[in-house]
Write a structure and sequence with these properties.
This protein is α/β, with parallel strands linked by helices. The protein has a single domain, classed as Rossmann fold (3-Layer(aba) Sandwich). Helices cover 34% and strands 19% of the residues. The chain contains 10 helices and 8 strands. An 8-stranded mixed beta sheet has the order 3-2-1-4-5-6-7-8. A hairpin with a 2-residue loop joins strand 6 and strand 7. The chain starts with a helix and ends with a helix. GO terms for molecular function: methyltransferase activity. Keywords: Methyltransferase, Transferase.
Length: 270
Amino acid sequence: MTARAASRPVGTVTRGTTNPNRLRRMDRWIAATHGAELRRASDAVAVDLGYGAAPWTAVELLARLRAAAPRVRVVGIEIEPDRVAAARPYEREGLTFRHGGFEMPVPGRPLLVRAANVLRQYDEAEVATVWERLCARLAPAGGGSRGGLLVEGTCDEIGRRHVWVALGPEGPRTVTFATRLGSLDRPSDLAERLPKALIHRNVPGEPVHAFLRDFDRAWAAAAPYASYGARQRWIRAVRDLAADWPVTDSPARWRQGEVTVAWGALAPVR
């Protein structure tokens, strides 16, 4: 292998589609659930992996994380050199851009890696290898810390609907469904935004299919709460859903149009 081949970024170029505020729901969840880890670190580095054709998501990630952890630094990484060059004018204190891929050319171990809409174009069989590689780069657990966090998932073009998997150094932990409630007809509408590890598993016999079926039923049963607004209907549906599924968050997050479930309950049948 030549030196040039050895240093070539790992991965393939994405479409690069991005819009301002597209990842706001994911960012707010990260700040709420991982902010304490970022605050405790003496040198907290967060990576926006595959930020796309414009740097908006990295700029916004810095602002949202600094509201929770003022010392955090964000590194935007893109595999397409022209995108990195276009982002350089947006660098500032706490925000830099680098050319790279899944090898993540940053020093040390990041406390956060956000990979949004990156694996959508990959084959399902490739996901586990990418996850393993990225998780191996996360800050390790220890000393009261759970270690770094990888957030990998998919959303629509304007950020109304998201589904993401949160992974630690040990592997996948949870799956979060998040939506602008006013845009939702039924919870299974989120199926089209399932991450690559789950989107082809939304078929009978798979846990994620059963979960979305039960969520739709709970949503239908909570129809009387719609007179109080979509938020109250969602909260009631999630409360009923939690009787049969390992929901890991609380009403404070449900009010945001979110629900988080243990990964083990939705993991694909092998």
